[in-house]
Design goal:
The chain is of the alpha+beta class. It is 22% helix and 41% strand.
């Protein structure tokens, strides 16, 4: 009889202990799950605010200076990478404007040579070369509207074989998908990013005289120049 009472008491005690443990465990699991979901959500929000941006130049471009006819320019093969981020971490769904900055170490724009450039329908002389050395390339891109406005500064080096090398011409402008700043001689209108990332960027700049009488006289410096580039700009989400 005593043995049966002890058995019932022990069973009841074990039932109570088991019930308490069962009540405690789900609370720990729910709390952990909630914290994990919050961390995942925060990580996803950060990823949507930062991007790697890729820039490629295409053919059918134009470059013009002074009152001379435009150069037909095949810029295919030009490229560059950079970073892009929203103006603020907390943004609305309508705020799609990104701040973009390209890494100059990755930026390459093909030179003007006999294989890339034509003037009046004829290739440039094989010994003539104009190299482009970018110094600054950054601005804003609106993913929603497709508008692009990139500040661009570069040194243009004019050489004739090993016989002649002029001081660098400094070109500074805003390459835009909209209407360029209208100068006295030059103007242009670009095209916004389409669904494939293609766009046309135009910019007008004033080129100041340099310490070279030949170039100043030949180009009539100071004067204006026009850049008209076909390009592709694409974005890849970045975790940082």
């Amino acid at each position: 009889m005593g043995c049966k009472v002890n058995h019932s008491f022990n069973s009841l005690a074990l039932f109570k202990v088991s019930t308490k443990r069962a009540n405690l465990c789900p609370r720990k699991i729910i709390t952990f799950s909630s914290s994990t979901n919050s961390q995942i959500q925060q990580t996803q929000e950060i990823k949507t605010n930062h991007y790697t941006v890729n820039f490629k130049t295409l053919g059918a471009c134009k470059l013009g200076i002074a009152k001379y006819p435009d150069f037909g320019y095949n810029a295919e093969g030009g490229k560059g990478t950079g970073s892009a981020s929203r103006k603020a971490e907390e943004t609305t769904s309508d705020d799609d404007e990104l701040l973009v900055s390209f890494d100059l170490n990755t930026l390459y724009i093909p030179p003007l040579t006999s294989s890339t450039t034509k003037f009046l329908g004829l290739p440039l002389p094989p010994f003539l070369k104009i190299s482009i050395d970018p110094q600054h390339f950054k601005g804003t891109i609106n993913q929603n509207s497709g508008q692009v406005d990139l500040e661009f500064k570069a040194k243009f080096w004019f050489t004739i074989g090993s016989l002649y090398k002029a001081p660098a011409l400094i070109v500074e402008t805003v390459l835009t998908s909209e209407e360029s700043l209208v100068g006295k001689m030059r103007s242009g209108r670009g095209e916004r990013l389409d669904k494939d990332g293609k766009c046309r960027l135009v910019g007008v700049a004033t080129v100041d005289p340099i310490d070279d009488f030949l170039m100043n006289s030949f180009l009539g410096l100071p004067t204006e120049c026009l850049a008209d580039l076909n390009a592709i700009i694409s974005f890849t989400p970045s975790p940082y």
